[in-house]
Every structure is written in structure tokens, then in C-alpha cells.
């Protein structure tokens, strides 16, 4: 592919269209930090049951920080988590609740905010080896997407560890959103080692090929190290003309981790707010048009990113916020 000033034609085109969507940060980690939920059990779904207003407040705080896309708190409203409290039969109701709370926050904020409906992994994050069979996953995703559809502006199939996992979620989202032509985005989680591809071991190019026929609206990487996302976006920029971006975390995820086992994830003190913002600005220079944070990234980080984008706008850059 020919390059212009060291950049591919796709990167040049992405840079020219610069409308930057600031995403929110992590929900579960923020609820834990505020003492709303414990670290285990039903995780962020517990707040929907016990303290839904706390979920609403986190959404509002991210909007106040500058986020213009907020994500529904439906990451753990899945049967495999809810069964810990014999609530697996409530997964559709709780997913709809998550959608309604995000919609309420967006509407009450008086800002131009989009709601992204989260379709998460159905077993464990990061574990491609635990992705359920298609026959099990597809009806669950279909029900979750249908529950979210009345409340959301886009669908976000997030933390997808493999091409198959992403495809199952994206097909359900496309079907549920068809009546309103809702955009569908897929966000893959990458291996911690930069350049290693998805956590399944599949390459980024192979993952894109697996969903190409679905004509999805955008692609992201999330819930992995800023370094892995930086490398992933450099690859992705040359593979798609769709909007793309990322939202890194502030934890190091070891192999074999699950929410309830004894393998410990590590909080990364070395990823400062300054580092997070710098990563976002590098992503935008690569052509990304969406950036935010995942686990361990909070409202203060999102505010710093939004302020940095404002500063670039005021200095005459072509980059503008969403």
C-alpha cells in the first residue's frame, strides 16, 4: 500500500474526518472504588439490584467529565454471573434496567450523549477457551440485545476475546437494532504483549475477516494494556476505513484469570493519567476517532483526556470533540 508522509491513505482519510468521540471509563471498578459493590460475586450487576442510583451517578459523572458515549452497565447481567445468586432467570430484566439507567443519564445531562449497549463475554473476560458454543451464546445475545435496543443509540460488542465470540454478539446486535438502523461496533481484547493479536491468538486481520460480511460500523480494542492497544491501532489503521479506536485498562491480566479464581490481576501504578492521555492523543494521530478507558480508568482520567482534546481544538488543530 502506498504511503503519504509515512502514513497510509486510510490513515490520512481517518485523520481528515476528525470528529472525536470521548468514551467513558470503567463502571465496575468505579463502583468498587466508591464502596458500592464487592470485587467478586455478581460484580457490577449487584449495583443494579441494590443501588441503581449509584450506577446512574457514575454515568452522570462520566458525562460531566466530558464523555460523550456512555456504556450500559450490562457487562455482568449475564446468566453465568447471575446464577451465583440464583438470578439467571432475571438476566433480561437486569439488562433492560442497565439500558434504562444509561438512557436516563444521557437524557438528564442536557449534553449530546450517545448510549452504547454493552454485549459482553458470556463466560469470562479474556478467556477465548471458555467462549460458549454458538448454540448457547446466540439466544442469550439475542435476548440481551433486544432488551437494550429501546434504550441505546449504538451497540458495543466489547471485550471479545475471539473472532467467533465477536461474531455471535454482532449478529444479535445487528438483528435487534435493524428496525432503528442502530450502528454496531465490535471491540476486541488483545493479548498483553503488544503485537500478539487477540487473546485467542488470532490476528487482527483474521478477526476483521471473520465479521467482514456483517458490514459493521466500527472497530475498537479494549480492556488490555495501553501498549497493546497502541500497537493494535497501528495495525488496524491500515486494515479498515471504518471508525476505530480503543479504551485501555489500568490492570495487568495474567493468563488464566477469572473473576472468582485465585489468580490475581495487578493494578498498574505506572499507567498515570498523563500516560493515558498521551496514549489517547497518539491513537488520534493514527486516525482513531473514539477513545476512552476501561477497568481502572475513572472520571478524572476521562476529564483529563477531554481537556487535552479541548486544548488541541483551541490551538487550531483539526481535531474536535464529538
Shape: globular
Number of continuous helical runs: 12
Q: Compute the average pLDDT.
A: 90
- Tell me the fraction of residues in β-strands, as a range: 5-15%
Q: Superfamily at the CATH H level?
A: Homocysteine-binding-like domain
How many distinct domains? Answer: 1
Q: Element order, helices and strands?
A: HEHHHEHHEHEHEHEHEEEHEHE
Number of strands: 11
Q: Uncertain spans, ≥5 residues at pLDDT below 50?
A: 1-17, 315-322
Structural class: alpha/beta
Radius of gyration: 18 Å
Q: Largest beta sheet: what is the strand line-up?
A: 2-3-4-5-6-7-10-1-11
Task: Explain the overall architecture.
- This protein is α/β, with parallel strands linked by helices.
- It has a single domain (19-309), classed as TIM Barrel.
- It has helices spanning 9-16, 28-33, 45-50, 52-65, 79-82, 91-109, 134-148, 163-176, 204-211, 226-236, 273-285, 299-314, and strands at residues 19-22, 69-71, 114-119, 154-160, 184-188, 218-222, 244-247, 251-252, 266-267, 290-291, 320-321.
- The strands form 2 sheets. A 9-stranded parallel sheet has the order 2-3-4-5-6-7-10-1-11.
Amino acid at each position: 500500500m502506498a504511503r503519504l508522509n509515512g502514513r497510509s491513505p486510510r490513515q490520512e482519510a481517518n485523520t481528515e474526518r476528525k470528529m472525536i468521540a470521548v468514551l467513558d471509563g470503567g463502571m465496575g471498578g468505579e463502583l468498587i472504588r466508591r464502596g458500592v459493590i464487592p470485587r467478586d460475586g455478581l460484580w457490577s450487576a449487584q449495583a443494579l439490584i441494590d443501588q441503581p442510583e449509584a450506577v446512574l451517578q457514575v454515568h452522570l459523572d462520566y458525562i460531566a467529565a466530558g464523555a460523550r458515549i456512555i456504556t450500559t452497565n450490562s457487562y455482568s447481567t449475564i446468566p453465568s454471573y447471575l446464577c451465583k445468586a440464583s438470578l439467571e432467570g432475571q438476566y433480561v430484566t437486569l439488562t433492560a434496567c442497565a439500558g434504562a439507567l444509561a438512557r436516563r443519564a444521557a437524557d438528564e445531562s442536557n449534553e449530546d450523549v450517545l448510549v452504547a449497549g454493552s454485549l459482553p463475554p458470556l463466560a469470562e473476560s479474556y478467556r477465548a477457551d471458555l467462549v460458549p458454543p454458538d448454540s448457547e451464546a446466540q439466544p442469550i445475545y439475542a435476548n440481551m440485545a433486544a432488551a437494550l435496543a429501546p434504550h441505546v443509540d449504538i451497540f458495543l460488542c466489547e471485550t471479545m476475546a475471539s473472532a467467533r465470540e465477536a461474531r455471535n454478539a454482532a449478529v444479535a446486535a445487528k438483528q435487534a437494532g435493524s428496525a432503528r438502523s442502530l450502528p454496531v461496533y465490535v471491540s476486541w481484547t488483545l493479548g498483553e504483549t503488544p503485537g500478539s493479536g487477540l487473546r485467542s491468538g488470532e490476528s487482527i486481520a483474521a478477526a476483521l475477516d471473520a465479521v467482514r460480511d456483517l458490514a459493521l460500523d466500527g472497530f475498537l480494542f479494549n480492556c488490555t494494556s495501553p501498549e497493546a492497544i497502541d500497537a493494535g491501532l497501528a495495525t488496524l489503521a491500515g486494515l479498515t476505513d471504518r471508525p476505530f479506536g480503543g479504551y485501555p485498562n489500568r490492570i495487568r491480566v495474567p493468563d488464566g484469570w477469572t473473576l472468582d479464581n485465585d489468580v490475581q490481576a495487578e493494578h498498574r501504578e505506572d499507567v498515570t493519567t498523563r500516560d493515558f492521555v498521551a496514549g489517547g492523543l497518539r491513537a488520534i494521530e493514527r486516525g482513531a476517532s473514539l477513545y476512552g478507558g476501561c477497568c481502572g480508568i475513572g472520571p478524572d482520567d476521562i476529564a483529563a483526556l477531554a481537556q487535552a482534546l479541548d486544548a488541541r481544538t483551541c490551538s487550531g488543530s483539526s481535531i474536535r470533540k464529538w
